[in-house]
Amino acid sequence: MRLDEAVWGLLHEALQHYRDNPRATDHLRHQLARLEQPLRIAIAGPWRSGKSTLLNAIMGEEVAPVDGVDGSTVFTWYEDGPQPSATAYASGQPPQELAIAKSATGMRVDLVGWRAGELRDIVVQWPTRTLRQVTLIDTPATGRDEQGRAPVMERVLRDADAVLYLTRDGRDSDLRVLETSRESAVGQAAAVHVIMVLSRVDETGGGRIDGLLTARRLARRQHRDPRVNELSVHVVPCSGLLGLAGRILSESDHAVLAALARVPRPELETHLLSADRFLRGDLPVRIDTGVRAALLDRLGLFGIRLATTLVRTGCDSRAKLSAELIRRSGLAELRESMARLLIDRRDTLKARSALAAVEALVRAEPGPGTEDLLGRVEQILVGAHEFRELRLLAALRTTRLGFDADLAAEAARLVGGDGIGLAARLGVEHDATVHRLWDVASEAQWRWRNRAEDPLLRLAQRRGAQVVVRSCEGMLAELAEGGR
User: How confident is the model at residue 65 (pLDDT cuts 50, 70, 90)?
Assistant: First the structure.
């Protein structure tokens, strides 16, 4: 049985079991509706980790944060809509439409007058291609309360299908909050719905130009950390500030940066030692204080240093500088990882959310027959090939299976680590013929079946090879049905 069919059947089985419990049945119907909705991706992390800036960078417009909101409690949802709008949801009050003001680079919603803690959610509708496949959720800062609970993260894991978890350096306290996700059977199945983002990478290495390279080395080291592997499917360094600056860079911004770049580097560097020097010092070129402040707000000191260097070395147009800032920020890599690891696996991640919801309901409201429901959750988790692929991907990121680097890379590709399309899995050109796809898939199936049946290999390696064989069989079946 397909995963989506198994989950749909489980939800209806749970509905029948809890038919006399209105609260539970409403919750389960909500989960059924979620299966047809866009993928929900929450952007979470500790205070000042750059969540709102990264959301703006992904959107390519300045739509977050919402002005005047008490960010300690409010979840702000960004979804596609025919026209810009915002709605406030507060406990014990009907939804209220909010006035919005559009700007050249986005919008602002003014919430002055709302009391702290009064709002629960704000839903912003914004017409953009980015939100056609996903709903983005800007969340309050994560952390633990006096009882050791992580209430924000608990809600993130309940309401979102996938998470971008922001951390400056992946330190222990940040990881402990993320470990909240492993307190259930679904969570222990591998944190395949989390991408860890090393944010504020422009601050790594003391703000030096090579700080981005330092951040990438840190990400590779984190990628090999067994504890991080248990909590996330990938680690990506990304400066939301630089990425956003690249996406909304204007011609006037480029003109100011070009003027600064014409100043000899040693002379300019003395004015970029601090924000105060840049704003109040006597620059060698005439730039209005308001323009300086806007540029500093948009790029930061590191971004100004980097942008002027890029202009000196060939980024002589707005388009060139914009593209290079986006590339160096890590935003392109993050968006590609989101597409490959989250959006392309939308149905699997939504099924995971539904299984987690049923498990949480059964544990919160146990009774006669609920053990059978819990057993069905675990049966689906263990039996669904989609989850086996994701568990193997997590295992392949470490060396514990014992595959050499080339075998591990091939296995990861065949089970969808480079994308779930047939061409991506088989490592061939995207316009390859069905005949070529069939030949490559058949050859891969034969090679990996030999490994799966090799008695000299460790049991873990043979089981991993069996998962790869099943993936190859699925590709051949799809090709036989006329798929590509």
Answer: low
pTM for this prediction: 0.88
Q: Enumerate helices (H) and strands (E) in the chain, giving the number of each.
A: 22, 11
DSSP 354-369: HHHHHHHHHHHS--TT
Give SS3 for 293: helix
- Residue 356 is assigned to a structural domain of this protein: no
- 254 and 232: one domain? no
Domain check: are 138 and 254 in the same one?
no
Question: What is the pLDDT of the chain when averaged over all its residues?
Answer: 86
Q: Tens digits of per-residue pLDDT, 315-328?
A: 999 999 999 999 98
| Strand intervals (E) in 227-383 | 234-237
> What three-state secondary structure class fits 189?
coil
Q: Residues 284, 233: one domain? A: no
Identify the H or E element spanning 42: strand 39-44
Same domain, yes or no: 48 and 189: yes
The model's confidence at residue 281, banded by pLDDT at 50, 70 and 90, is confident
Interior angle at CA 38, CA 34 and CA 40, nearest 5: 80
**Closest residue by Cα to residue 83 from 66, 102, 103:** 102
Nearest alpha carbon to residue 201 among 367, 96, 334: 334
Same domain, 135 and 226: yes
The pLDDT score that the predictor gives to residue 187 is: 54
Q: Report pLDDT digits (tens) over 414-441.
A: 999 888 899 999 999 988 999 999 999 9
State how far Cα 378 lies from the chain centre: 26
Tell me the residue range of the domain where 405 lies.
Answer: 399-484
Query: Does residue 218 form part of some domain?
Result: yes
Q: Residue 42 forms beta bridges with which residues?
A: 137, 163
Same domain, 139 and 209: yes
> Does residue 234 sit within a domain?
yes
Q: Same domain for 176 and 273?
A: no
Q: Give the number of domains in the chain.
A: 3
* Residue 22 Cα to chain centre, angstroms: 34
- Name which of 148-152, 289-293, 326-330 the model is least confident about: 148-152
Runs of H (alpha helix) within 224-288: 226-229, 240-248, 251-261, 265-269, 275-280
Q: Is residue 220 situated within a structural domain? A: yes
The arithmetic mean of pLDDT across residues 153-179, rounded, is 83
Q: How far is 303 from 207, CA to CA, in rounded Å?
A: 9
Q: Is it true that the peptide bond before 65 is cis, omega within 30 degrees of 0?
A: yes
Same domain, yes or no: 347 and 301: no
